[in-house]
């Protein structure tokens, strides 16, 4: 029997077509899910900062006191295994559950937040907050939920992109995958249950080199959890 030597070929030198795939910030690291892509010798490229950079996108200072209104500042960069946008400024506010509506109204009326995308953890909470802000008045507010017809939801997104809506309240379930333009602030009315959910939320602003601000309302029991995990 004649044994012939086995020659190895460097596949990277083969004249093969190059395919570029773009993924969201929450790319799964599950091997079984990645296998479904049928990748051949893939290479992963990620963009991030070597050093943390603090970018001042807005002034969250009270006009009366000259001090930041109880905001805990967290610099952007890496959140666990995920990255946050370079131009993102992140704040956490410790607040009691019953005072959350007052904080939202304070941010909108006193600090003049506009083009705000506000996330809740349920359709019911979305509707309640929408009704309350609408009742107070002085703002263009809309809700974005599964209770609305698709045509109306598309109309609302176009109005928001055109700057005609000050506050858009929605749940995580409805916001998943939606492409919203002109988002300057992301407000987490209810704390996200997972870091991945937080990344999905804040990723709606500070896109394509722009600056944006994320504000999370945390109850006392969550105050120690979030800055530690997210930082």
Automatic annotation (TrEMBL):
Keywords: ATP-binding, Helicase, Hydrolase, Nucleotide-binding
GO CC, alphabetical: cytosol
Pfam families: Helicase_C
Domain of life: Eukaryota
Residue span(s) of domain Helicase C-terminal: 87-231
Statement: the UniProt record of this protein carries the keyword Hydrolase: yes
TM regions (residue ranges): none
CDD domains referenced in this protein's UniProt entry, alphabetically: SF2_C_DEAD
GO molecular function: ATP binding; hydrolase activity; RNA helicase activity
InterPro entries: DEAD_box_RNA_helicase, Helicase_C-like, P-loop_NTPase
Name the record gives this protein: ATP-dependent RNA helicase DDX51-like
Source organism of the structure: Lingula anatina (Brachiopod)
Gene: LOC112041816
């Amino acid at each position: 029997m004649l044994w012939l030597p086995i020659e190895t070929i460097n596949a990277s030198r083969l004249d093969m077509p190059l395919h570029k795939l773009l993924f969201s910030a929450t790319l799964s690291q599950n091997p079984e899910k990645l296998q479904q892509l049928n990748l051949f010798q893939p290479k992963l490229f990620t963009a991030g900062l070597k050093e943390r950079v603090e970018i001042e996108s807005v002034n969250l200072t009270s006009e009366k006191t000259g001090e930041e209104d109880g905001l805990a500042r967290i610099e952007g960069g890496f959140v666990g295994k995920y990255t946050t946008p370079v131009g993102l400024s992140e704040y956490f506010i410790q607040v009691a559950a019953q005072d959350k509506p007052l904080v939202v109204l304070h941010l909108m009326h006193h600090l003049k937040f506009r083009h705000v995308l506000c996330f809740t953890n349920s359709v019911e909470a979305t509707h309640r907050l929408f009704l309350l802000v609408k009742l107070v008045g002085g703002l263009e507010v809309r809700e974005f939920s599964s209770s609305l017809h698709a045509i109306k939801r598309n109309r609302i997104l176009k109005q928001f992109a055109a700057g005609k809506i000050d506050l858009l309240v929605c749940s995580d379930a409805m916001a998943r995958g939606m492409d919203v333009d002109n988002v300057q602030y992301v407000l987490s009315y209810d704390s996200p249950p997972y870091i991945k959910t937080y990344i999905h939320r804040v990723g709606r602003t500070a896109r394509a080199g722009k600056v944006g601000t994320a504000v999370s309302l945390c109850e006392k029991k969550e105050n120690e959890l979030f800055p530690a995990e997210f930082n």
